[in-house]
């Protein structure tokens, strides 16, 4: 008997279609699509494989997802899965599942992950190391928090996406600027946190019905906040050849406790954490969805699998298997330098090819004339793969030290 899966795909972006490809590759799966797009725009390769379509105006509106789910239940007789990987959709998806009686992450658990202030409270109640934080709705709230923890502090939206819209305040003047930038009011509060200094890592975990079955940990080089504050920085994400290096193996117990405290069921989660100079560890935050910054293809390179297919199989059939790690991998992000809004030149490509070309397995190079990127991932990237961690580190160093994207 096939599994009836509804996949929520607001737009046909590359990542969303990559995930749809993974779903379409699974046997015994009947796929229905909930999307902003009309049925006529569905790419030809999915004709016959996607057997249901429901157009909505807003995939973040739980009521519209519920209406779509009811239509599929009426037509198909049942719906077994309602899934989507974008972080912003996790709460409306969970509300719709609860209302429709579809198995999966519930609203209460989704809010534990999406509402960062609630997340930190849950983790703190479980005795886990997290940065001190507070939900602030005014300048006086912010000043009171500063009196408690001191400068610097970090401010971000309570339901933020990774490091986006994250601002650091180091004194009263930058605090005022941050409050204005985030437009903090009682009806639009921000999350304030003490600033944690240390190496920043990620920790990816596959859990099945609450039981951890697979882990991976990566390095940010440098950390995302430093990248956000310095637009000229070329940065990297690196997966070592060792699936869990000693520091990550030590952190694993904290990761498992945190996911249990938040109530995770079946998911691939993405946690960010800090390793301080004294060896202590602090949990930053965790998302109940696949990681970004090219970690999905990088994990696939390390293990010789398609990680999107593995994620689809996990969410549909609640099973996950991956061969042992055989390689290290990394991503170098090329970010424009200068005040302009258009790429005027890309320098150092020949040198980068000489230093790192043998290890590059995928790339999207910046092109002269393209507009400045709106996100912190930059105007282009290169993925590298090597048999040792040292090879990958050297290749990444060669890329970011050679390539220069000039904006004008």
Nutshell version of this structure?
The chain is of the alpha+beta class and 408 residues long. Helix content is 35%, strand content 27%. The strands form four sheets. An eight-stranded antiparallel beta sheet has the order 13-12-9-10-11-14-18-17, with helices on both faces. A four-stranded parallel beta sheet has the order 3-2-1-4, with helices on both faces.
Describe the structure.
One of its GO terms (molecular function) is ATP binding. It comes from Nannocystis pusilla. Residues 120-316 form the ATP-grasp domain. Keywords: ATP-binding, Ligase, Nucleotide-binding, Purine biosynthesis. With 408 residues, this protein is of the alpha+beta class. The protein is built from 13 helices and 19 strands. The protein has helices spanning 14-25, 62-76, 90-100, 107-114, 116-125, 139-149, 172-182, 224-229, 246-262, 295-303, 307-317, 349-356, 389-402; strands at 3-8, 29-35, 50-55, 81-83, 133-136, 153-156, 167-169, 190-194, 199-208, 211-221, 235-239, 267-275, 281-287, 328-334, 336-337, 343-347, 360-364, 380-386, 404-407. It has an eight-stranded antiparallel β-sheet, with helices on both faces. Strands 3-2-1-4 form a four-stranded parallel β-sheet, with helices on both faces.
List the defining traits of the structure above:
408 residues, 4-stranded parallel beta sheet, 19 strands, globular, 8-stranded antiparallel beta sheet, 13 helices, alpha+beta
